[in-house]
Hints:
alpha/beta, Macrophage Migration Inhibitory Factor, 4-stranded mixed sheet, two-stranded antiparallel sheet
Amino acid sequence: MPNILIKVPTGAFNLPQRHQLLRSVSDVAMINEHMGDAPQQRMLCWVLIEEVQADQWLCGGVAPHAQVVPCMVIVKVPAGVLDTPMRQRYVSELHGALQSNLAAGDQRRLLSSIQIEEVVDGTWGANGEIWHLADFTRAAGYGHLAD
């Protein structure tokens, strides 16, 4: 049950690319978190792309947009869903999803900053209720955590 926020420079991805990026990131999340395939389980994966104006984005104190496409991704998952190898694969595949959705012929290098934030058990609210890892496991169908 991830919540994923992707910040990209305005115009780095056109509308069809953004739509494909949303799908690609959703797929990466559901695969890496071992979520179930039922529609109600897939509905628990939220992905949002936010475009940021180039004049509001600096890397190392300079605007890098002519040479690189900086992308920031924040993934929130319930604590206990991922182990260290799973996090590494997740980050690698998210970077790949960003890379594969850049415009063909775009010569700029992709720079990704991906943070996986594990939400402490009992501190994630959903629909007015506090959820625990067992609740997320039942709802999302985490195959590797199911009893």
